[in-house]
Amino acid sequence: MLKSMTGYGKSTVEVGDKTIHVEIRSVNHRFLDITTKVPHTLLFFEERLKQVVKGRLTRGRVDIFVRFEGENSVEKKIDVNWEIVDQYLTRLKDIQRRYDLTGDISIDMVSKLDYVFSEKEMENDSDELKTALLEAMDDAVRQLVEMRAKEGHELYEDLKTRIAKARSWLDSLDERRPMVIEEYKERIRTRVEEYTKEQLRPDETKILQEVALLAEKGDVTEELTRLQSHFIQFEDTLSMDEPVGRRLDFIVQEMHREVNTIGSKSNDGKMTEMVVNLKSEMEKVKEQVQNVE
């Protein structure tokens, strides 16, 4: 089943007096690129969250957001920088001795010195928290995958419709091709008669030689055949039950190559118009394929 690379999921769970919110969204990307924004206390669990995504997705830029709410949502710890305190006390005593100063070095004085205390967020690695976070993550990813599947179905229908339109232009080009040869022949005969100024019977052999030369230069039979084959391959790939975005992108590139060659060979106004319409459909197909996982 075709899947889009665009999706969104959100889940909330409660653990004691805490509420955990998990949001995940994805957009187009050539590969699977995952970024996370989680509280510092959960950085140790960051890779585990990424593994949940890697188990369900193969392409797309994925952003994961985790936040806490509630009492004591972030536990903190006050640390003493003993090395700094030791240096302060040593230097203060040096100053006393150097200048023969009196007085005691009090706790009040030391507590006001810079960098003595530091505040750190403690890692919250309780099993209860991990279980709740994974539960929320799984639920958010499930919603994301469901949205990508829904949009993928819409992409599938749209691409089928556009390929059908492209096929119709391809059929029109194929039907027009023999008419162009006859028109070549008639134009050459008319020009010969105009140059001779008389209604002479022109040399049919030479006319046919000229027609054959022009027809060979503008012959797009091989390109039309290959393009038809690409359309079949494209539709078969659409129905595969696996990520097919890269494969579809490659097929579309081959389609564009054939269409451009047909356009460069065409010296017939009607065929050129058909090629323009065909290119227009192919551009829309190319844009939509960029959204496929």
TrEMBL record:
GO MF: hydrolase activity; RNA endonuclease activity
Cofactor(s) named in the record: a divalent metal cation
Highest taxon of source: Bacteria
InterPro entries in UniProt: YicC-like_C (IPR013551), YicC-like_N (IPR013527), YicC/YloC-like (IPR005229)
Residue ranges constituting the Endoribonuclease YicC-like C-terminal domain according to the UniProt record: 174-293
Pfam families: YicC-like_C, YicC-like_N
Domain Endoribonuclease YicC-like N-terminal: 2-156
Alphabetical UniProt keywords: Endonuclease, Hydrolase, Nuclease
Record PANTHER family: UPF0701 PROTEIN YICC
Family: Belongs to the YicC/YloC family.
Protein's UniProt name: YicC family protein
Organism per entry: Halobacillus litoralis
Source species taxonomy: Bacteria, Bacillati, Bacillota, Bacilli, Bacillales
